[in-house]
Structure formats: C-alpha cells, structure tokens
Amino acid sequence: MLLITLAMTACGTDTREWMKLNQTYTTAEFRRDLQQCTVKGKLDDDCMKARGWVAVTPPKAEQKKEDPLSLPAGRSPRR
User: Fold this and answer.
1) Residue 24 pLDDT class (50, 70, 90 cuts)
2) Every domain of the chain and the residues it spans
C-alpha cells in the first residue's frame, strides 16, 4: 500500500497535508483533485473529502488553541 502525504502548494495560505487511507494513489491523482476542488484560490474541504482525501493536519483556524486557564509546562497546582 502506497501512502504518500503531499503538502499542498497550489494554495499559498493552506499548508495542510492530505492522504487517502487504505488506498493507493498517485501524485497526478492528488494534483488533479486539488485543482478540481480549488475554487477562486480557496480549497473546498468537502470536495476533497468526497474524493476520499483526509486532512492530516487541521487548517490553521482549527488548530488547538492554548487554554488560558491551564498551567505552564512544569508547574504544579498550589496546595
């Protein structure tokens, strides 16, 4: 099984990586789907998912934000 994760280069602001699980695919297939799912410079996630692609990394807007109430690393709660 060939699992290739490709960084998207066609859309300058979207740097997510995509792959197909349990399927083989080629770079040409990825580029074709990427081109067909990009409208006005914006990638349509639903289009990619409908073609079997899974985002390996979330988009920047969905990345985990730091919890303001969490303790800094290496700190324990006061007793």
Assistant:
1) very high
2) 6-60
